[in-house]
UniProtKB/TrEMBL annotation, chain A:
Transmembrane segments: 6-22, 31-49, 69-95, 107-124, 130-150, 162-182, 202-228, 240-264, 270-291, 298-316, 328-348, 360-384, 404-426, 447-465
PANTHER family: NA(+)_H(+) ANTIPORTER SUBUNIT D1, NADH DEHYDROGENASE
UniProt KW keywords: Antiport, Cell membrane, Membrane, Transmembrane, Transmembrane helix, Transport
Protein name (record): Na+/H+ antiporter subunit D
Family listed: Belongs to the CPA3 antiporters (TC 2.A.63) subunit D family.
Species of provenance: Saccharibacillus alkalitolerans
Domain NADH:quinone oxidoreductase/Mrp antiporter transmembrane: 127-416
Keyword Transmembrane: yes
Subcellular location: Cell membrane; Membrane
Pfam family, one: Proton_antipo_M
Coiled coil feature spans: none
InterPro entries membership: CPA3_Na-H_Antiporter_D, NADH_UbQ_OxRdtase, ND/Mrp_TM
UniProtKB/TrEMBL annotation, chain B:
Topology with respect to the bilayer: Multi-pass membrane protein
Highest classification ranks of the organism: Bacteria, Bacillati, Bacillota, Bacilli, Bacillales
Main location class: membrane
Chain ranges passing through the membrane: 12-29, 35-56, 77-95, 115-137
Family the UniProt entry places it in: Belongs to the CPA3 antiporters (TC 2.A.63) subunit B family.
Keyword Lipid biosynthesis: no
Na+/H+ antiporter MnhB subunit-related protein domain sequence ranges: 9-132
Name of the protein in its database record: Na(+)/H(+) antiporter subunit B
Keywords noted in UniProt: Cell membrane, Membrane, Transmembrane, Transmembrane helix
Localization, UniProt: Cell membrane
Automatic annotation (TrEMBL), chain C:
Keyword Transcription regulation: no
Signal peptide: none
Provenance organism: Saccharibacillus alkalitolerans
Name recorded for this polypeptide: Na(+)/H(+) antiporter subunit C
Compartments, record wording: Cell membrane
């Protein structure tokens, strides 16, 4: 039992409630949110140290022993993602101090962000399938409100679609929980894994696994992604960045967790399906990114394509691939947030979202241009940056298994994404400025400063991949060997 | 339709609202060992307020209860969270409850339970959320 | 009993999906709500329909019902309550703003008057 495990969930919840009371006092709200997110990151680091020295940390909520009560589990994988989420959200909050208009701030922007963070961290840390659903809903409810905040026509239309899709997938989630409970009599992930290993993964259970695959795929944007580019493009940059960095990754985390811990017996069915969906996602997402002319949509398709790439690692599921998946997931959270934030500045700078009407941004803000280029290269996986080690490991893992198609898809993805991002760079930054700068647009420097920590992280993660690797290794070990997780949860 | 014209509904609801609220109170306290609890009591109280709003109008409800229901929700959440987090200070797992028997004046020996405080939080949150939604949809017509 | 419940679940699913496939936002909201209730019924049926007393010790009863599905359903109802309410408010606001409740007639991506993202 370790009460620290609940901290990354409790801190944002408290902050959110506190901020509702301080609705009128914007300056105070900003400071409190920032401090809270920093505290959260500190708690995540503290947890990480505990996990490194003492193994997996668990907390039985309300003192009920694991198969009966809800258990929170902090293993290295979850803690790494919690830490990355905290850092990313800190930068997005810093950005939103200037990047979000006061009207939105007054309409409970900060409380909503913190509610969403509580949901995100809860989803990472929970060890119970139904609790995962509850945390998902907490996160999604706040995201519904965040996406419509401001209330433009486009936002209303996209939000209606977004809510409908998510409500449907949540319904299917509860249905699959019902089936699993009927079949196994438990919802604790560790206990589920144990029960299914004992009785064998029969046909019906594989069918439920496929249902869960559909549910999480909708949330992650794996193959079932038609809703994503529109919805993520509707809100302002700071909110899109949070969504692009966190929401889809939570879905991906759930996929990896469930399919490495519980449903790992019938890999010829489920994992093949994941692989096929991953390849389809890469192809569709990659070509989608290439074909679009709207910056936010290009980035939306980039998010989708990366999800496809991570799911390839899950399809391969050997040691190297999973290690790569953990690394790439952390990298992807950071780099996608950075790209959305930089694109937000670019859109503000040029006054349009269409890249064929942009141009010449490099003249006014050279730093923005070079940061964008560096971030694009990191997405593609150019060596000194953080995209490289993860991508290398995933490709290496798939080659070890003789999955050449998967490796080829991964390489194809890099080319397509490179093309789509360089297109933004060339059309947006080169040439002559076509629009006069808006008079009220000032100080992009401060906005740039808020995304600088992310940039720094990308470089550092790439350069010092070696010292970070043991942590990734540890996370991957648990994914490879479910018994470690099961023993840690059910020991008491 | 002129507002507040239905004299039967108005007079009946003057009485019925209090019956509903009393029943909600009963449900709230009985929720510890039988069906009931903060959520259902909260919904019932909100139902009573809704009846008031139907019989008179929303302005009347505003006048009777001049509070910001968003803040009611927030205080409810805060109470529930603090009760859950209280266990942290005693080195117990999060959300662990405590209870004891106390000798109270008038009531005699009574069992007091921290889960009741948590339920109070739930009650306030539910009333707050429901009323916020009703007022949001109902007020512009 | 299980068969009856299974049929009811099926009918509710069909009704919910039919409503969601229509174009009117209000019907879609009702559809999602009905669909969720179908799933709640499914959850109850999957955990065996049986009679027994509340699972509290010391009441001199022999058989108990499983409390977990009820807790799950209650939680899910609460969440559904929140989402349906939010969805309704949103549909109403969207109607005010877009002057239609028809999903297909809502202005498309190419509309020029969108708010600048900043």
């Amino acid at each position: 039992m370790n009460n620290w495990v609940v901290a990354p969930m409790l801190i944002p919840l408290f902050t959110a409630v506190l901020l509702i009371f301080l609705n009128k006092r914007l300056r105070l709200q900003r400071w409190i949110s920032l401090i809270s997110v920093m505290l959260n990151a500190a708690a995540a680091v503290f947890l990480m140290i505990q996990v490194r020295t003492g193994g997996i940390q668990t907390l039985n909520m309300s003192g009920w022993a694991p198969p009966y009560g809800i258990v929170l589990v902090a293993d290295m994988f979850a803690v790494l993602l919690v830490l990355a989420a905290s850092i990313v959200s800190a930068c997005c909050l810093l950005y939103s101090f200037r990047g979000i208009d006061e009207d939105r701030e007054k309409h409970y922007f900060y409380p909503l962000v913190h509610f969403m963070l509580a949901g995100v961290n809860g989803s990472f840390l929970t060890g119970d399938l139904f609790n995962l659903f509850v945390c998902f809903e907490l996160m999604l409810m706040s995201s519904y409100a965040l996406i419509v905040l401001g209330g433009t026509k486009r936002q209303f239309r996209e939000t209606l679609h977004y809510i409908l899709i998510n409500v449907l997938s949540s319904t299917l989630f509860v249905a699959s929980v019902a089936y699993l409970y009927g079949a196994t009599g438990t919802l604790n992930l560790a206990h589920l894994s144990l029960r299914i290993a004992e009785s064998g993964q029969s046909g019906p259970i594989t069918a439920v696994a496929a249902l869960l695959l559909v549910v999480f795929s909708v949330k992650a944007g794996l193959f079932l992604f038609f809703w994503l580019p529109g919805s993520y493009g509707a809100p302002p940059a700071a909110i899109s960045a949070l969504f692009g960095a966190l929401l889809t990754k939570v879905g991906m985390y759930a996929l990896i967790r469930v399919f490495t811990l519980v449903f790992y017996h019938e890999t010829s069915v489920t994992h093949t399906l994941i692989g096929l969906m991953g390849i389809a996602t890469i192809v569709l997402g990659g070509f989608g990114a290439v074909s679009q002319t709207n910056v936010n949509r290009i980035l939306g398709y980039n998010v989708i394509a990366s999800i496809g790439f991570i799911s390839l690692a899950l399809a391969v599921s050997n040691e190297d691939a999973l290690k790569g998946a953990v690394f790439y997931l952390v990298h992807d959270m950071i780099v996608k947030a950075l790209l959305f934030l930089l694109a937000g500045i670019l859109v503000a700078e040029t006054g349009t979202e269409r890249i064929n009407r942009m141009g010449g941004a490099l003249i006014h803000s050279p730093l923005l241009g070079w940061m964008f280029l560096a971030a694009s290269l990191a997405v593609v996986g150019v060596p000194p940056l953080s995209g490289f080690p993860g991508k290398l490991l995933i490709l290496q893992g798939s080659l070890e298994e003789g999955r050449y198609v998967i490796a080829a898809a991964g390489v194809l993805l890099s080319l397509l994404l490179l093309y789509s991002l360089i297109k933004i760079f060339i059309l947006g930054f080169w040439g002559e400025p076509r629009h006069p700068r808006e008079a009220h647009w000032k100080q992009p420097r401060k906005l740039l400063l808020s995304s600088a920590p992310l940039m720094l992280l990308i470089v550092l993660l790439g350069l010092f991949a070696e010292p970070v690797m043991p942590y990734m290794q540890r996370a991957a070990d648990i994914l490879n060997e479910p018994s470690i997780y099961i023993q840690a949860v059910l020991k008491e | 339709m002129p507002k507040g014209s239905d004299i039967f509904l108005q007079n009946v609801s003057k009485v019925v609202v209090f019956i509903i609220l009393a029943f909600a109170l009963y449900l709230f306290f009985t929720g510890h060992g039988s069906p009931g609890g903060g959520f259902i009591a909260g919904l019932m109280s909100a139902g009573a307020l809704l009846l008031l709003a139907l019989a008179y109008d929303i302005e009347t409800v505003r006048k009777v209860l001049p509070v910001d229901f968003k803040l009611v929700t927030a205080s409810g959440l805060l109470i529930a969270l603090l009760t859950g987090a209280g266990a942290l200070f005693f080195g117990k797992p999060f959300l662990k409850h405590a209870f004891g028997h106390f000798e109270l004046p008038l009531l005699g020996e009574t069992e007091l339970h921290t889960a009741l405080i948590f339920d109070l939080g739930v009650y306030l949150a539910v009333v707050g959320v429901t009323m916020t939604i009703l007022l949001t949809i109902g007020e512009d017509r | 009993m299980e068969v009856v419940v299974a049929i009811i679940v099926g009918v509710l699913f069909a009704v919910g999906i039919y409503l969601i496939l229509t174009q009117d936002v209000l019907r879609i909201v009702l559809g999602t709500s009905i669909l969720t209730h179908a799933v709640h019924l499914l959850l109850m049926a999957m955990s065996m329909l049986k009679t027994g007393s509340a699972p509290l010790l010391g009441r001199g009863k022999e058989t108990f019902v499983d409390p977990l599905p009820q807790a799950l359903i209650l939680t899910s109802i609460v969440i559904n309550f929140g989402i349906t309410a939010f969805f309704l408010v949103l549909a109403y606001r969207a109607y005010q703003k877009l002057d239609t409740t028809d999903m297909d007639r809502m202005p498309s991506e190419s509309s020029r008057h969108r708010g600048q993202s900043r």
